Structure formats: structure tokens, C-alpha cells
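# step 3/5: fold
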Amino acid sequence: MANSALPVIVGLLLTACVTLTACGNPLATSAAGTTATATETSGVLPTPRASQATTAADEPSSRTTSPAPDEVPACADTDLIVSVSSSGVAMGHVGSTIAFTNGSDRPCTLTGYPSVAGVDTTGRQVTQALQTLSGYLGGNYTIAAVRMAPGGRASALVEGTDIPTGSATTCPVYPRLVVTAPEQTNSQVLAATMPGCSPLQVHPVVAGATGRA
């Protein structure tokens, strides 16, 4: 009796499982439907909090940066007293030193090359000095800011030559120089005798009054 009833019970259980599979699991279907509906409704996933924090950090700050207390401004034309003097002769090379004196009541700096032009006897600018880091009289230079206290001086050396080259027997002579301080626009005309057998050269400003590196 027990053995003959077992196949019948197994058959009933299999029938119930098939019926449940065909109908589907209502709980699973409901959960899947809820998930799909939530995704379709929102359209865009919410922004993570970490991204929001990054965006806030990237916003420009409204704070301003104050200049360093030891920063020294560049010298203006109105701060400077400009003069020229002879700087010696050697092996056909002739030099003139352009001196810049700080005539203000505060420190200031000069950096780089002055602009120097040669003027002929009629007052016409006829040549522009080449800006170079080395010269026969001056040596080898580097460009650096020269800090000048009130009354302090910086200087730059101008070089020319007085030996004719090639078939030339004479060379031009510039009785005046037009000088503009580094990074400035106002020029001054200074009396100086500079020969121009080769192009004039001017070197960067250095501390002191000799113009030599």
C-alpha cells in the first residue's frame, strides 16, 4: 500500500511545481517592476556626495593675495638720475659706463639691459647698441635684479672699437648716447664719445658704478 501510493504523491508534487513556474512568482515580479519603474522615473542617477565636494573645492576663492613684505618695486624713470663716464681703453676697445642713481627716498630695483643708441653730430640716432652678455672690457654677465637703496647706484657698460676694419681708414664717432633705463620708456641724451668701428654693445646692469661683471 505504501509503495503503490508513492508514485502518486510524487506526481502531484511535480504538477504543483509546474503550475507555480507557469504562473510566475508574484513577489519577484512585483519587485522587478518596482525597480524598473523607479529607474524610468528618475532618468538620471543622483550625484554622489564626493563629486559635490570636489566641485565646491574647485570654485575660485574670493580672497586676494597680498604682496610679500620684502618685495622691492622696479625703479621708475622719476626715481633715477642717469649719468655717463669714461670706462677706459684696451686693445682698440673703448668703454663708457652709464650709471643709474636712485634719487628717491625708497629702495627700488633695476633688471636687465638699458637701451642705448648712438647719435651723430646732427642729433640723429644712427645706431642701436647690441645687448650682449659678454664683452672685451666688461667680462661675462648674468641678468639679475639689482636692489638699490636711496642714493645707491647700478650701472651698465657700453663698448665700442676705434680700429678700422677691412678697407676702411676711419670710423664713425658718436658724440652722444640716447639712454633708456631698463623696463622704462623715457630717454635721456648724454654727452659721450664712443667710436663705432664695430657695432656698439651694452651689457646688463650690475651693482655699483663700474659697469663691470
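# step 4/5: annotate
Helices lie at 2-23, 26-42, 49-58.
# step 5/5: archive (pending)
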